[in-house]
Amino acid sequence: MTDQADNISNQEAADGGEQKRGISRRQALRYIGTGAGIILAGGAGGSYGYRRSLRISSADAERLKSVRFVVAGGSVGGLSVAARILRAMPDADVTVIEPNDKHHYQPGYTLVSAGVYDPEEVVFDQRSLMFPEMKWVRDSVKTFDPENNRVITRGGETVNYDYLIVGLGVQMNYNSVENFAEALETPYAGNIYDLDKGIKYRRLMEEFEGGKFVSTYPQGFVKCGGAPQKITWLSEDYWRRKGIRDDVEVHFHSNRHTLFPPVPVVDEAVKPKIEARGIHNHYNQTLRAIDVSTKTAIFEEEREDGSTREVRQRYDLLHPMPMFQTPAALRESELTAEGIGGQIEVDRELLQHRRFSNVFGIGDCAATGAPKTAATIRKQAPVVAANVIDAALDRELQAKYDGTSGCPLLTRYGRCMMFEFDYDGNLVNEWLYQSTRETRLWWHFKVHGLKSLYLNVLLNGYVNV
Ligand SMILES: Cc1cc2nc3c(=O)[nH]c(=O)nc-3n(C[C@H](O)[C@H](O)[C@H](O)COP(=O)(O)OP(=O)(O)OC[C@H]3O[C@@H](n4cnc5c(N)ncnc54)[C@H](O)[C@@H]3O)c2cc1C
User: Fold this and answer.
1) Is the CB of residue 447 less than 8 Å from the CB of residue 116?
2) What is the distance of C-alpha 177 from the center of its chain?
3) 459 within some domain
4) What spatial distance separates the first Cα and last Cα of the chain, rounded to whole Å?
5) Going by CA atoms, what residue is nearest to atom 15 of ligand 1?
6) Which of 85, 141, 150, 376 has the highest CB neighbour number within 10 Å of its CB?
7) Whether the CB of 412 sits within 6 Å of ligand 1
C-alpha cells in the first residue's frame, strides 16, 4: 500500500479513530474477505457437495469424463467456470486457451491510478490461479469454427471441443477516437483501463498544479461503467486534499444523459453530491477526436431535437475514453450477430449461444445487456457451470442468470456507495448495502475485502456468494 493510502488512513484515524482495541477496521475487513473464502470453501463440502449442487450422479460423472470442455479466455470469467466444473469433477477434461502468463486484477486498476494500491498488488502469475488439472493452451484463439466444434489458435493448433465456454472480455478500441493513441503519448493524458497508462495517470494527477481537467465517458458498451466517474471524483478529492482545488476546473463529458443511468435511485442520490463539489457534468457528448497540438478534446453533442453540434473543450489534463470492442477472433466469427457489437450472441438468462447449443458465453464479451463487471461474473459463473453440465447430460437447462450485478462507486477517498441491481435497474439486497449512502465501511470493503473474494472465492470456483 502506498503513501497516499497511508495518508488517507492517517486522515481517517484523525477523523474518527479507526483503531479499536488492537484491531483496525481495515484489518477486520481483510480478515472477513479471506475468512469468507475459507468458510465458503468448507461449506461446499468438497467435490461431493459440488456434484450434488450440479445434480451429477456417480454414473453422470463417469459419463462426463469423456466430455471435452474448452474455455476460451482464462481470466475471471473463464477460470471461474473452469474451476467450478473441476470442483465437481476433478478428473474432468478441461482445457483453457489463454495467451497471457500474467493475470491482472482489473477491478484494482482504479485504485492503482488513485495511488491506493501499488501496481504489483494487481498482477498475478496466471498459472498460480489455475488448477493443476486445467490443461493450458498458452495461445490466442484465431478462429472459432462452431460448425465443426473446434477452435484454431494463432499458433496453428486445432482444439476440438464438445462444449465451449467463451470469456474473451472486451478491449479499448483506440481507433474510435481520432488521435487517441497520440494523446496518450503526451504528458497531458493518461488512462486507467491500461495498467501502464494508469500508473502514468497517477503521476500526472499527483503532479497537477491546477488548470482544466477533462474526463470523458464513451459511447456503446463499457467495461465497468462506474470507473470513468470514480477516477474523476477521486482526482477531484485528491486535489481538494492537496489544497489546490480552487485552481482546478473539473469537467466530466459523458455520452449518457445523466450521471449513472443504470440505477435511477443511485443516480438521483449521487448527482447532487457531485454537483455540490463543483464538478461540471456535460451530457450527451461523445469524444470524437483530440487535437494534441492545442490540447483540445472535440465532442459531438446530441441535442434534444436530434441534431448534433461540435463542442470543443481545452484541457491541461485529460482522461479520455474510447469505445470498447470484443477481440477480433470473436467479433469476426460466426458466434456474433448483427447489431450486438461483436459480442457473443447468448440467451441473457441461460447464457447459452442462441444458435450453437454447445457454446456458452460469460462475462464482458457476452451480449446480455448486463454491466461488464467481475460482480456480474460472480452471478453468471454458477449459471454457466450448471447449464453446460446439464447440456452435456442432455438435460433441460435450469439455471438462469437474473441480471444481478454490483458496483462499488468510490465517490471520494475513504467513501464508497455500494449497491447491487438487476436487469431493470432495481436495487437488490438493499437491506445490506443502503446504497444511497457514502460510507467508510464500503470503501474499506472495496480496498481490503473484494480482492480477496475475487482471488480466493471467485477464481477458485467456490459456492455462490
Ligand atoms: C479500470 C477498471 C475498473 C474496474 N472496476 C471494477 C469494479 O470495481 N468491480 C467489478 O466487478 N469489475 C470491475 N472492472 C471490470 C472487470 O475487471 C471485468 O468485468 C472483468 O475482468 C471481465 O472478466 P472477463 O473474464 O469477462 O474478461 P477479461 O478479464 O477482460 O479477460 C479476457 C481474457 O481473454 C483473453 N483473451 C483475449 N483474446 C483472446 C483470444 N483471442 N484467445 C484467447 N484468450 C483471449 C485475455 O488475455 C484475458 O485473459 C473494472 C475493470 C477496469 C478495467
Assistant:
1) yes
2) 22
3) no
4) 27
5) 373
6) 85
7) no
Burial of 190 (0-12, 13-18, 19+ CB in 10 A): buried
Would you say 451 and 112 are in contact if contact means Cβ atoms under 8 Å apart?
no
Decide: 248 and 239 in contact? Cβ < 8 Å: yes
H-state helical runs in 66-106? 76-88
Residues 6+ apart with CB under 8 A from 60: 393
Give the tens place of pLDDT for each residue, 136-188: 999 999 999 999 999 999 999 999 999 999 999 999 999 999 999 999 999 99
Name the burial class of residue 288, with classes exposed (0-12), middle (13-18) and buried (19+) by CB atoms within 10 angstroms of its CB: middle
Which atom of ligand 1 lies closest to the CA of 329?
Answer: 41
215 lines ligand 1 (CB under 6 A): no
Q: Which atom of ligand 1 is nearest to the CA of 140?
A: 42
Residues 320 and 191 sit within 8 Å (Cβ to Cβ): yes
Judge whether 36 lies within some domain: no
Q: Is residue 25 part of a domain?
A: no
Domain boundary among 325, 349, 368: 325
Contact 108 CB / ligand 1 (< 6 Å): no
Does 195 lie in the same domain as 115? no
- How far apart CA 380 and CA 374 sit, in angstroms, is 10
- Looking at the structure of the chain, the number of domains it has is 2
Of ligand 1's listed atoms, the one at least distance from the Cα of 446 is 8
At residue 286, the 3 state secondary structure works out as strand
Domain of 388 in residue numbering reads as: 45-170+329-406+420-429
Count of Cβ atoms closer than 10 Å to residue 258 Cβ = 14
Asked if residue 317 has its Cβ within 6 Å of ligand 1, the reply is no
- In 167-238, which ranges are E strands? 171-173, 211-217
Has this prediction a pTM greater than 0.90? yes
CB 187 within 8 A of CB 204: yes
Q: Which amino acid is at 394?
A: D
Same domain, 88 and 184: no
